[in-house]
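Why do we care about 3D structure at all? Because function follows from shape, and shape follows, mostly, from sequence. That is the central idea of this module. The next example makes it concrete: a single protein chain, its amino acid sequence, and then its structure expressed as tokens.
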Amino acid sequence: MPARRPNDDRPGPSRHAKAGRPDPTNPAIAPDMLANVGVLIHEMSNLLDGSLRCLSLARRTLCANDAWASDPQATRVQRQLDAASTALEQMAGLVHAALQGPSLALGSPMLAGTRGITLGEALDHAAEVVRPRAAELGVQVSVAATDAARAAPAGPLYLVLLNGIKNAVESIARAEGGESPPGGLVHVEARTADLDPRSARPRPMIALEITDDGAGPPKGAALARVFEHGFSLKPGGMGMGLAVCKSIVEHTGGSIELARRRERSDRRRPGAVLRVAYPIPFAGDIAEAA
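And the structure:
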């Protein structure tokens, strides 16, 4: 039996090293990385503030132009400006929360923005933000929600909706078949479900499903890793989107899963469904967190 070499037990290179990225778990570089992140967040805050001011100026200019107001494209452009403005406001809220320090959890209701929004508003806006990219691919994005679900507070779920819809559109773009644009459908559905049996104060649950007819989720062991930080099937992907979604949903006391659509038989485009279930937050929950 050959003698064991001294370095046989040393661990191999981390996934970060293999990808050419610094490993944030390395104590030697973690402080520098945190300092850089702090600088980045500060600069993002400045950029967001400037972008919001430019958007506000553009909207006021368009509204003051009588000739533009009569243009048939005015309504569509105004809607796109409104969507971009709301998205930037959501980002500004996240950056503001990050500047407060590391104690704020990703699932905190404080990350839902300064104004509480309903789930219906969050659904409609997330879909509107993704629709321009979806249109380039010939993909339709539809939203259906019961009145009770639309009226429920969104809490911090906006980021989950935005990530889920965006991932669904990207899955269709990755699907095999050769069509250009590929075409397809992303459907978002929200409804109220049974009471949460684990809660000390019983409350109804919200059940969300985001379905697509794209490439489908990974198979085998890889499927169990889709919510791990750093795991990604996208070239150059950082593997953060679904990990953040999982953190947010679990912080609300909910659950999240990604699965293949069993009702589809198309092997090239089996599709996927992202399922989220979480208890409807009481109004006092968000007020107390703020």
